[in-house]
Design brief:
single chain; 300 residues; alpha/beta; Rossmann fold; five-stranded parallel β-sheet; five-stranded mixed β-sheet; 47% helix
Amino acid sequence: MKRKLLCSLCLCLTALLLGSAALAVEFTDANGRAVSIENPQRVVALYGSYGEVWRIAGGTLAGTTSDIPAGDDGAAELGSHTEPNMELLFSLDPDFVILSADTSEHAEIAKVLDSAKVPYAFFSHQDYRGYMEMVKLFAEITGREDLYQAQVEKVEKPILSMIDEAAELEGGNPPTALLLRAYSTGVRCKGSEGTVAGCILKDMGFVNLADGDSPLAENLSMETILMADPDYIFVTTMGASTDAALTSMASLFTDNPAWAGLSAVQANRYFVLDKELFHQHPNARWAEAYGQILNILREG
């Protein structure tokens, strides 16, 4: 009798667990759409970074784009994130497609998915907070709350500690920073919002000289940089060739004799940042990016 009762209880518990795993997760995506997703098994990510977050949260991918390292789930490569192979995508029979709200081409792809009645959602983030929110949502969908908690320990808590230490090092006197993005064809000044590096520097207490109505944002030149004379200069690179981007930086600025007169240069506070940590979304490596900036502050 006890054995039968125990078996019945086990069956009930199993049914409850299966029922709870199958519950739909409802959320509002980055484009303000109401989305309901229930236990997807054939997920396609059309933006590599967000596909990586899906994997971090315990999901597997049926297909993804070429801007993500190959995983052990055998995901099919669909080409670039701006022009994915839609015929191959539909051959994978997806039940959820992850899109980027910041990729203009994805708006048209969404219309095609709508016509085919394939569920999808738009996502967007530029800082570690957005990353943590995405991991939390994806972990809720995959039923892997433990993996979200692992990211809290690995990413969120260390970052909060480093932000506090940076504030102590600055002692109420935040340093100024010039953030530049170098391309093979030019250099632009970037503010605190909308870029990974900008968000990190802001969190770590830097005053970004391109914020507000700064002339640097509209008219970047050697003259405006000399007038601003930042405490620190940071450069991120964009494009296939870092060397080409730095060559552009040299021809426009660093080869200019006046560059050596900047306070940041004289104090050895000119840094070219790692593209994987400060231009692309670092995802599980967010804390590593903050750690590099903290080390720079520690060195003075």
